[in-house]
# Entry
Amino acid sequence: MNCQRMEKNLIAYLDGKAAAAERHKVEAHLAECGECRERAEQFRLLSGVLDEWQAPPLSPGFDAAVRVRVAQEPARSGFWAWLLPSPRAAFALTALVVLSVWLSSISPSRAPQAVAAQGAEADFKMIEDLPVLEDYDVLSNFDALSYLPAQPATQSESHPRL
Amino acid sequence: MARSDVQLMLDVKAGDELSFELLLHRYRTPLVHFLYRMVRDQAAAEDLAQEVFLRVYRARGQYEPSAKFTTWMFRIATNLALNAKRDSRHRQLEVSIDQSDETSEGRAPSVEVADRQPGIESELIARDRSAMIRRAIEALPEKQRAAVLLHKYQEMGYDEIAKILQCSESALKSLLFRAYETLRVQLAPLLQGGETPATSQGREK
# Structure
């Protein structure tokens, strides 16, 4: 074993958790390498030194604080429990969102036509009631317009039902 | 006979609140101590530990005994502590300039008292030493720090620590080696032997 291999083996050796074969290899290396021997000895000392850092005791109200926070739980966990075991509901919701996003992304290409068609139709109806109706030129002009967008208008009518 | 962690957790899942209390009593101290050493602040550590227990409780419905209970709990704790640490690092940047370790530690209240009373003096030395250890561990990269705390202070096995930190056992051993090597250098003054008040209870022979 060389010094590099000690990086993977020294800690387990010092913890007394190395397998016999591994332990013998480490011991053989330590016997011949002063630097690693020194490091191993200092690692042992270090373990004792690190024990000096003590954590303070828990504050007396700790358990009560946990209980208070847990007691606030049931309502919330009950709400989520209703949703979580229902993957179908989550799937249906996701599908609905995806579908509506998809529809709104494809509709803009048709929308202007539909709006134009509705606008023309309304214009025509308004004009229909006006005395100008008697003017044949105007009537024929708007008559033509009302027929032209008739096809896109039917397309747009079916759209909101999707 | 005491019920295992997994059994207690399954009982909690079945609606037994008392089993949750038993888990709380079993792990509150190691958990708060671990978190204290991670975030270096007792109030914050207790708050995080409460959050860990809350998450354990919340997850009771989905609990499956696939992983060891402590592995699962300490992974939650480690992630919470690392996130809290990252958050507070930004917030405490200005504060830390005028509130250095020495002042917040409140050490050496008055020199003459220390001279007159040897008990207080040795207490101050001990406090200095643990402040030094704390700072050295604090300065380690976060994964190395968590590894050292779980190995040294929680005395966990390599397989469990590796699972908590999501690395291989081999990688963990290198991680620990590098961490202890850094600490050995940083804490060299404490390793010289002689006046070590609490070292005698340690592992050195």
The longest helix of chain B spans residues 17-39. Chain B touches chain A through 56 residues (CB under 8 Å). The radius of gyration of chain B is 20 Å.
